[in-house]
Amino acid sequence: MTIAARFSRRRLIVAASAASAWPHLARGQSAQRPLRLVVPFPPAGPVDTVARAVSQKLTEWSGLGHIVDNRAGAGGMVGAELAARAAPDGSTVFVCSIHHTVLPALKPKLAYDIERDFAPLTFGARFPIVLVAHPAVEARTVAELIALAKRQPGKLSYGSSGNGGGTHLAGELFNMQAGTSILHVPYKGSAPAMSDLLGGQVQLMFADAPTALPQVRAGKVRALGVANAQRSPLLPTVPTFGEAGLPGYEAYSWAGFVVPAATPKEVAARLSQDIAKALGQPDVMARLHEAGAEAAPGTPEQFARFIRDEISKWAKVVKAGNIQAD
Predict the structure, then answer these.
(1) CB 227 within 8 A of CB 240
(2) Integer Cα distance of 304 and 300 in angstroms
(3) CA 251 to CA 131: how far, in whole Å?
(4) Which residues pair with 223 in a beta bridge?
(5) Distance CA 92, CA 13 (A)
(6) Using CA atoms, how far apart are residues 275 and 59, in angstroms rounded to an integer?
(7) Contact present, 278 and 195 (Cβ < 8 Å)
(8) Is residue 167 part of a domain?
(9) Residues with Cβ < 8 Å from 186, sequence gap 6 or more?
(10) For residue 324, is it within any domain?
(11) Region class of 187: left (phi > 0), else alpha (psi between -120 and 50), else beta
């Protein structure tokens, strides 16, 4: 074999290896230019963490500089409107969250429709919601808390990251299903809510795992239950609400991936496969676990059903709790 032939063969092997590492490198628009992942929240938050973990893995595979574009504002609406208007060519992916399935009930005249204007790619990750209590609360289980709240109606309060947010609605869902009237105290973010819980200004908090875990591990708050259907690997010794006395209760924050609705189906399918594969990589799963998230990729059809169910579920909670948007 000549030197030129050996060189050509080597180039083919390198190219084949790259194509194998990045599943669709040689096919379709999604692999021909960098992706823009629009995150409707500030950097360093839970949804941003999921987007950056995926972006980094896709960049490793493709060699392309995929970017995370943080467009925070209006509770996730600014980024959603921007992404809905983006060119449907596979170059823009929107990283949506629980907020986008609550907003339809809070703001019926949104400038976009999360189901009509987007095509689902894959569920990304869930952030378990944990019910945590100040050490002075005389309840060590969910069942004991429900009994305490019924004996002292209106005396207990819980903090959340904000009015109409996922942790607020988790608390209202709890009141609905448990028959309690624990008072909601909204804060401008999870950090000030947790600060007041530690200080005893509120007795309880429905907190996402990234906020709750450090304080639970430090022994500063008591975890009564996790709102997953099954126990979370992040808190394996903490029972689910079902185990702890409230069957059927389930609520968690989450992040998922969608594209503008008119994106060609074959392009969306490739993106779905690539993002789901990235989420399933051991290093990505470990990175998310460290951040308090559970990677849970799936099919577009599964994610579409999930979005539809979430919209219906939270609309009922918003109506029953007479929750108003800020």
Answers:
(1) yes
(2) 6
(3) 11
(4) 132
(5) 31
(6) 11
(7) no
(8) yes
(9) 159, 160, 162, 163, 168
(10) no
(11) beta
Whether this prediction's pTM lies above 0.85 is answered by yes
Both 52 and 197 in one domain: the answer is no
The answer to whether residues 247 and 132 belong to one domain is yes
CATH label of the domain that carries residue 308:
3.40.190.150
Whether 96 and 244 map to the same domain: the answer is no
Residues 227 and 281 in one domain: no
One digit per residue, the tens of pLDDT, for the chain of length 326 reads 443 444 344 433 333 433 333 444 433 333 467 999 999 999 999 999 999 999 999 999 999 999 999 999 999 999 999 999 999 999 999 999 999 999 999 998 999 999 999 999 999 999 999 999 999 999 999 999 999 999 999 899 999 988 888 999 999 999 999 999 999 999 988 999 999 999 999 999 999 999 999 999 999 999 999 999 999 999 999 999 999 889 999 999 999 999 999 999 999 999 999 999 999 999 999 999 999 999 999 999 999 999 999 999 999 999 998 998 77
3-state secondary structure of 157: strand
Check whether residue 150 and residue 235 sit in a common domain. Answer: yes
Bridge pairing between strands 67-70 and 294-295: unpaired
Sole residue written with tokens 């574009």: 69
The residue from 251, 274, 289 where one domain ends is 251
CB 149 within 8 A of CB 156: yes
